[in-house]
Specification:
118 residues, mainly alpha, 5 helices, globular
Length: 118
Amino acid sequence: MRRLLAGVAGILAGVLPVAACPACWPAYATVLSSLGISIVGFGTGHLVTVSVLLSFAIGALAFDAYRNRWIIPLIFGIMGAIAVLVTNLSPTPAFVSYGGSALLLAAAILNAVRNHRR
């Protein structure tokens, strides 16, 4: 369950600026202040936050890929994370971020189903 939540956190961090841009700064401020991080001077912090949360998601998928000897969710997760990061780094259409988030969600669901069967 914790690994599924790690994937969901990465998905939400990547989609939030595209899906609800007016709400993204208060949402990030709330999450970061609950962790004890100030949002003052948070210009490049958005990319750092997205990268850290996506790395947690990919790390959880990599751990399960190693443990289960099944790499397909990890491949989906890496492709989705790359799409989300590209969207945050360059002016690409929103559907790229949505597609990347869908790939991350598919990876998390495939991983959870595989773990539940074992």
